[in-house]
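Database export, one record per block. Field names are fixed; values are copied verbatim from the stored entry.
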Amino acid sequence: MDARWAIQNPDLRKLTFDQASKRTRGEIGYPKPFAKFGGMTGQPVWEKLMRYAPIEDIHRCDDCAKLFIMAEHEELFDNKDHAIAAHNRAKGTKKLVTVKGIKHYGIYTEKRKEAQRLAIDWFRTHLAAEPHEKSK
């Protein structure tokens, strides 16, 4: 994910700097856990989000096996700008998997077992000290 888009929008940039200033002065606190924000669960702390760009560090793990799992019907972000972009930029052993039939939070709910199986299989194949039989 690359969240630097937050400061490209003038309204969000103003909101970000206003909140950061208020938080620094103790005028506001941090969002409550599980607060709703648009279609997301969890309110962003904008001043932290605006610097979040792990895609810029993808080169630091060239020697690591990387698994990118994305929702087919991702509605909160454009997969092309996030998972696909990171996958394309990554070097070395990598795999991009689309979990069919879900939106963003489906990876944590109705397709959680599938995502876990994908991650465990990837771990066993590329990261475990000894090879294991794939998950059933």
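Remark 1: The mean pLDDT is 88.
Remark 2: The CA atoms of residues 69 and 118 lie 8 Å apart.
End of record.
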